């Protein structure tokens, strides 16, 4: 207890630099950068979080209306664009784990602000395959899910789902190759942990949505009543 208080006091005495502009302050993101890059609310499809025209309101986009995804809703904190995309790369490939706490805080704000969103009962970080986890040393989705769970008072289940096959990085693939790459790679070891529950899938970036689609479908097959994606960044429609 004493050490935590000491660290909290030290943090107030030693300001940090804003991760975007370097301005000194007590928060990792200074108020001007937060307002400029994270403050403007984007009207998004409630199902897949694709940006929509303001007039569309809370209606799903045409793609989700034509073919409803396995997941029921998606909340995205920001768009995957400069300069925030750099922070995602620094976390995933540079080991800047402090960014995961920043992402979790911004995502928690987005969840609280989402209209009529039903909060999940359990958080499931997108799992990494053992080889990829050993290479990277951490799972960025889990690093986000832990502080997000504390902020939202939702339990985190790191082993709720498993990735049972090694795959190529989705970011290197396009079109149908993404879907084929991610097919049949997830498993749920214990159906009882999923059945009858609303599961929140946590990830850093949602691009095509194929990974989240596949994991949501597996959770639904094991009895999940609802699946909500909670992602830090959503790529633009052309990606």
UniProtKB/TrEMBL annotation:
It comes from Pseudoduganella chitinolytica. Residues 164-233 form the Phosphoribosyltransferase domain. This is ComF family protein. Pfam families: Pribosyltran. InterPro entries: ComF/GntX_DNA_util-trans (IPR051910), PRTase-like (IPR029057), PRTase_dom (IPR000836). Belongs to the ComF/GntX family.
């Amino acid at each position: 207890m004493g050490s935590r208080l000491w660290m909290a006091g030290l943090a107030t005495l030693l300001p940090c630099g804003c991760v975007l502009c370097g301005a000194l302050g007590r928060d990792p993101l200074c108020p001007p950068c937060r307002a400029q890059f994270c403050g403007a609310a984007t009207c998004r499809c409630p199902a897949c979080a694709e940006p929509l025209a303001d007039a569309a309101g809370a209606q799903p986009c045409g793609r989700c209306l034509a073919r409803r995804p396995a997941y029921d809703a998606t909340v995205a904190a920001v768009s995957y664009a400069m300069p925030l995309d750099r922070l995602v790369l620094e976390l995933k490939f540079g080991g800047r784990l402090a960014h995961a706490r920043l992402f979790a805080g911004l995502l928690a704000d987005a969840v609280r602000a989402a209209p009529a969103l039903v909060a999940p009962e359990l958080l499931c970080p997108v799992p990494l395959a053992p080889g990829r986890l050993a290479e990277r040393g951490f799972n960025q989705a889990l690093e986000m899910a832990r502080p997000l769970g504390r902020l939202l008072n939702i339990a985190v289940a790191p082993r709720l789902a498993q990735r049972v096959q090694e795959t190529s990085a989705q970011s290197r693939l396009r079109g149908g190759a993404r879907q084929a790459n991610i097919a049949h790679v997830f498993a749920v070891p214990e159906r009882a942990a999923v059945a009858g529950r609303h599961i929140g899938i946590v990830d850093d970036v949602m691009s095509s949505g194929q990974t989240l689609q596949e994991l949501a479908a597996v959770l639904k097959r094991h009895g999940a009543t609802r699946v909500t994606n909670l992602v830090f960044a959503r790529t633009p429609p052309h990606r």
